[in-house]
Amino acid sequence: MHLRSALYSLGLLAAAAFVNAAPMKVARQSGVPKIVVAHHIVGLTAAFTVDDWTSDIQLAQANGIDGFALNVGNDPFTNQQAQNAYQAAEQLNSGFKLFFSLDMSSFPCSTPDGATTLRDLTMQFATRPAQLQVDGKAFVSTFAGESCTFGQADVPTGWRTQFTQHPDTAGKIHFVPSFFIDPAQFNTFSGVMDGDFNFNSGWPLALSAAQAPQLLPGVNLDNIDGAASQALQKFIGSFDTDNQHITQLATVQGSAQTYMAAVAPWFFTHFGADTFNKNFVFDGDEHLWVARWENLIANRDKVSLVEIVTWNDFGESHYIGPNNHGQLPPGADKWVNGFDHQGFLDLTNYFATQFKTGQAPAVTKDQLVMWARPHPKNATPNDPVGPPKDFQLFQDKLWAVVLATADGQLTLATSDTTTQTFDVKAGVNKLSLDLTPGGFMHGTLTRNGQTVIDLKPDGYTFDPNPPAFNYNAFVASASSQ
């Protein structure tokens, strides 16, 4: 789990979204395959066996994911779990790839010894059969690292002399970090950045409750009508920050210009001052998961890889893997238990395949995925942590996506009296309906008078009087086969 502060994520990164970029330049393509990977938090896998890794790999690969970015930190089990992950992938021999995402919010990096640790870990696995290779070099990424000097005069010099161009690693790694800096500073990282991972590009960070009046003039966040919804969709899943990063990456002398974009389904974290002191949301409404995929597909010629954020970051609620596989950060059980997100995973293969091939795959079975929060956004529980920052952005709606084999009708209901029937076309359909306090979620897909899918999940109620704040998504999924 990433221990970012609200200032770190919202201040520095949102500010970077408004950088005035030069005219768009198309990145030179390196030898990176156009693949989709998922960010896997190794820090939550202390008790994993090889079989556990095998299970995760098989599930991911069955849903169009080609590899894991192993987010590794300064934990005593890092080496063993990396060994387990690589062993599992190599035993399967299914082409699934792995690479390190070095978590620089965890690893010490103020002295040369910190860099020695990173080089030793990287080179230990650099030539393993399951390691992702680009241009004959081991692909390596980071989470953060923009303040690491490794004892040198400045950050670029530290990374260049102690990691990318050090005799141990020079010519052997393809380095695509996620440095949380103004992209206009990328040009100072010549000899360091073979590419850029825009970790936060999956969320509309520029959109906050404080900025909403300026960004969405005339929009009432408590009453989002059709026009307001259209205004919001300019931010949800937007490719704007990607264009800024790609443009500035082109100014890095000698860079291969490998650009890795992020896609994320949700974000909610609710830790009090007694634990990690993180309590905020990013707007995940307006079908963020699908909208972001659609924008990545539309701009696929500019993107080398897509990294799903994440497979298992339970503490921040953007997991798409099983929520009962791995340890939970202390306290996260309050919003993770009972909130499975594998419906997001069920949609992944369709969009990942289209990103990789440029062609929408045939829909061979009907799928319905629905999600909603468990209580009204303006609920007032007796919760000592308080409401998360920017909760005002959320809408009290049931969101639904249908992948349809042919035309039909979807009836959504959130109570016995709140119901609406929508025409559904073959392919992707994004729909929504207002939630009802005390109500449920129910979706029925019909075609030619026959019921194809009838989904009304147990365990979901839109509770107007919750015991605590929970802005996680309850996700339900069903298919015709």
Describe this structure in words.
It is a single chain. With 481 residues, this protein is α/β, with parallel strands linked by helices. Helices cover 24% and strands 22% of the residues. The protein is built from eleven helices and 19 strands. It has helices at 6-16, 50-62, 78-92, 112-125, 155-164, 212-215, 226-232, 240-249, 288-298, 333-336, 342-357, and strands at 35-41, 67-72, 97-103, 133-134, 137-143, 173-176, 195-198, 258-263, 268-271, 278-281, 305-308, 367-372, 397-404, 408-413, 419-424, 427-434, 442-447, 450-455, 474-479. The strands form four sheets. Strands 1, 2, 3, 4, 5, 6, 7, 8 and 11 form a nine-stranded mixed β-sheet that branches. The chain has a four-stranded antiparallel β-sheet with strand order 16-13-12-19, covered by helices on one side. Strands 15-14-17-18 form a four-stranded antiparallel β-sheet, with no helix packed on it. Helix 9 (288-298) runs parallel beside helix 11. The longest helix has 16 residues, at 342-357. The radius of gyration is 22 Å and the shape is globular. Mean pLDDT is 94; it is low at 4-28.
Short description:
The chain has 481 residues and is α/β, with parallel strands linked by helices. The chain contains eleven helices and 19 strands. Strands 1, 2, 3, 4, 5, 6, 7, 8 and 11 form a nine-stranded mixed sheet that branches.
